[in-house]
């Protein structure tokens, strides 16, 4: 791909190339810059920031046009971004990394299991601004047309202004034909209840299917993504890959009777 | 397992039962409480907080003695903790969740790829205190004897005092016969360089092996885990599963010309 003056946008997801979500995102991004897609070859839902350590990766070139190149990698979403930075971008650093559009929300603590979010956290490690887009409708044929103007607006703003160092955005859309607007939100803490359905196979052996429902720790907290998605709004949650709890440092230091690190 | 007055300690890891690390941790924990181990059946290094969504899980009872029960699950470390809370603890909530001892550091942003950390983040989602232990020596036969007193001290302190809500501890040990002490640290931000080795197979096809070395964004920052591990100290980093960047919220609100969520 020729180097141009247009911004270079790297795109991945956790569903692979066949889903409408990534195709919608590619179409929008191609209006705004040169695009390289590095997508997983197989479905990678729930793969978080998992990386492949026990076997090597393969990359297959799927499309190659001026300003547009598409690869498939037989690994996780995070593998895709790592291999892009390491080899597939030919040494160029992208101006922006995009992930999604995921078919299904990545709100609440779904962010920690999400391969869609794994993409943007890996971009953050490389200090490149990144945006994850997810949509309530998990049907492969979901219509994302009502989201397109907002997606283009958010991408354009980040291309123009950047993001604070190490910050990525987690954008979620309810399944709706229109939206009252967008809110800047926090991640709703919580956990899944009744998380596995216990069944017995024809040979009398137990097995467990993942299922369940999300319980917010505080469903009335009107700062959270889950609260505003429930009211039909688009939510934008700034995230950081640093999971250090700075406020807890002096508490733990006192508890263990040791010093907080410095000098 | 009978219910007793002793604390209930749930243990997992990402290496499986055969490694010395988890066996060392089990031996220490059994001195302090009743222990249930739910460990992955296969190696799960680099699995982060990945969950199994496309097939059901199986759990096999491996040992069952008074105050001590061991399960193996054919899934990820996070699956192990989820299935424990959902079914394998018989409805009891553990007082503490332990992970490791991992053979290999989980310092710097390794925390985001680490199955060892996936265990403790899942415990945090259930609001249960949790501690991950990792050791520089990745050899399966590594000798963790010099760490045992400190591990018992940290576990005892958390059993006594708890941890702030949603906080877990990430404890790392250099490979050493003795230590100058322990520091409460932050996670060293950075990324891997030269991350894949490109090779060509006998059929002329490219493949890529994960390798590389970690580059700290600021190697002189004397608040970080990487800095103090490099000086031979034990590090304790308090972590939280909430990845919201609260400081970035007003910045992003201004950039997108929308409101920060509230009421």
Question: Can you give a write-up of this model?
Answer:
The structure is a homodimer of 263-residue chains. Chain A has 263 residues and is α/β, with parallel strands linked by helices. In chain A, 25% of the residues lie in helices and 29% in strands. Chain A contains 6 helices and 14 strands. In chain A, α1 crosses α4 and α2 runs parallel beside α3. Chain A starts with 7 loop residues before the first strand and ends with a strand. In chain A, 54% of the residues are buried. At the A-B interface, α2, α3, α4, β8 and β9 of A face α2, α3, α4, β8 and β9 of B. β8 of chain A pairs parallel with β14 of chain B, so a sheet runs across the interface.
The number of E-state strands of chain A comes to 14
Poorly predicted parts of chain A: none
Distance between the termini of chain A: 48 Å
- How is the largest sheet of chain A built, in terms of strand order? 3-4-2-1-5-6-7-13-8
Overall mean pLDDT of chain A = 95
Main attributes?
homodimer, 263 residues, alpha/beta, Stationary-phase Survival Protein Sure Homolog, Chain: A, nine-stranded mixed beta sheet, two-stranded antiparallel ribbon, 29% strand, globular
Question: Layout of helices and strands, plus pairs?
Answer:
Two copies of one chain form a homodimer.
Chain A: E1 8-12, H1 20-32, E2 34-40, E3 59-65, E4 68-73, H2 77-88, E5 96-103, H3 115-125, E6 130-135, H4 148-161, E7 167-173, E8 182-184, E9 190-193, E10 196-200, E11 206-210, E12 213-216, H5 225-230, E13 234-240, H6 248-256, E14 259-260
Parallel strand pairs in A: 1-2, 1-5, 2-4, 5-6, 6-7, 8-13
Antiparallel strand pairs in A: 3-4, 7-13, 9-12, 10-11
């Amino acid at each position: 791909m020729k180097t141009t003056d247009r911004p270079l946008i790297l795109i991945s997801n956790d569903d692979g190339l066949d889903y409408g979500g990534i195709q919608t995102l590619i179409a929008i991004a191609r209006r705004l810059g040169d695009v390289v897609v590095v997508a997983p070859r197989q479905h990678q839902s729930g793969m978080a920031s998992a990386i492949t350590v026990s076997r090597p990766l393969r990359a297959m070139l799927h499309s190659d046009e001026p300003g547009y190149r598409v690869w498939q990698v037989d690994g996780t979403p995070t593998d895709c971004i790592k291999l892009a930075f390491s080899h597939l971008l030919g040494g160029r650093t992208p101006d922006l990394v995009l992930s999604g559009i995921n078919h299904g929300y990545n709100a609440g603590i779904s962010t920690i299991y999400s391969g869609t979010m794994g993409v943007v956290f890996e971009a953050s490690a490389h200090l490149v601004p990144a945006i994850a887009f997810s949509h309530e409708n998990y049907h492969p044929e979901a219509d994302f047309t009502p989201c397109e103007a907002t997606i283009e607006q958010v991408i354009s703003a980040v291309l123009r202004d950047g993001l604070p160092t190490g910050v990525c955005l987690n954008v979620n859309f309810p399944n709706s034909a229109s939206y009252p607007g967008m809110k800047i939100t926090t991640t709703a803490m919580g956990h899944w209840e009744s998380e596995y359905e216990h069944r017995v196979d024809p040979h009398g052996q137990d097995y467990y299917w993942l299922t369940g429902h999300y319980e917010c720790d505080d469903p009335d907290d009107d700062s959270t993504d889950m609260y505003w998605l429930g009211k039909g709004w688009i939510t934008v949650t700034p995230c950081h890959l640093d999971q250090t709890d700075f406020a807890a440092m002096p508490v733990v230091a006192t508890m263990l009777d040791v010093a907080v690190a410095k000098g």
